[in-house]
Amino acid sequence: MASILVCYGTGEGQTAKVADRIGETLAGRGHDPTVVDAADLPTDLSVDDFDAVLVGSAIHMGKQESSVRSFVEDNRDALAARPTGFFQVSLSSATDDEEGRAEAAGYVDAFVEETGWHPDRIGLFGGALRYSKYGFLKRLVMKRIAKEATGDTDTSRDHEYTDWDEVAAFANDFAAFVEGRLGAAAPVGGDDAGAAAADES
């Protein structure tokens, strides 16, 4: 069993949902996940206390959450010393459009270059349009973006694009990677389904 930190930054809550689902998948595989919001880290939390770390972030205006960026920069050496992964949640990954997916991958490339952190596994997931949580101006901006990205301009309801099977496959693949690095066999009953979908970038 590995202790795995899942640290995320979220905007309207979709990345938090993804982080929680990853934690559930890791626990179901027999590991011990700790899921925390990068904007509200416990004062006694230390990366050195974990066998592996997953970091996740929402994308807003082409940038990851500032709390995630700070976490990575503050813990770069500790992250480099253990198995790590990064997952990103955005509208750019919500469609099969080649240009949109390239844009999402570009956000990750820029993040890696700017922080100097090179995660072992990367997952790119579609996010959500939380019209119900947006103020008037943001709702207008997001409606305009959605018209190009997904076509979902109905602001009377929210729209979710996350492929939860992809999220589970990513979590299982990362767990298998950690097990291999730590020299531990997969726990009895562990689910390897979808492990081949390791790198969504």
Q: State the CATH superfamily name of the largest domain.
A: Flavodoxin domain
C-alpha termini separation? 28 Å
- Report the structural category: alpha/beta
How many domains? The number is 2
The CATH architecture of the largest domain would be 3-Layer(aba) Sandwich
Low-confidence stretches: 188-201
- pLDDT average, as an integer? 85
Q: Over all CA atoms, what is the radius of gyration?
A: 17 Å
Order of helices and strands: EHEEEHHEHEEHEH
The quaternary organization reads as single chain
CATH class of the largest domain: Alpha Beta
Helix content: 25-40%
Secondary-structure map:
Blueprint: E1 3-9, H1 14-28, E2 32-37, E3 52-60, E4 63-64, H2 66-74, H3 76-80, E5 84-90, H4 98-115, E6 121-126, E7 128-129, H5 136-149, E8 159-160, H6 164-182
Parallel strand pairs: 1-2, 1-3, 3-5, 5-6
Antiparallel strand pairs: 3-4, 7-8
Give your account of this protein's structure.
By secondary structure, this protein is an alpha/beta fold. The protein has 2 domains: 3-127 and 162-182, Flavodoxin domain (Rossmann fold, 3-Layer(aba) Sandwich); 130-159, no CATH class. The chain is built from 6 helices and 8 strands; from the N terminus they run βαβββααβαββαβα. It has helices spanning 14-28, 66-74, 76-80, 98-115, 136-149, 164-182; strands spanning 3-9, 32-37, 52-60, 63-64, 84-90, 121-126, 128-129, 159-160. Strands 1, 2, 3, 4, 5 and 6 form a 6-stranded mixed beta sheet that branches. Strand 5, helix 4 and strand 6 (121-126) form a beta-alpha-beta unit. The chain is globular and about 50 Å long.
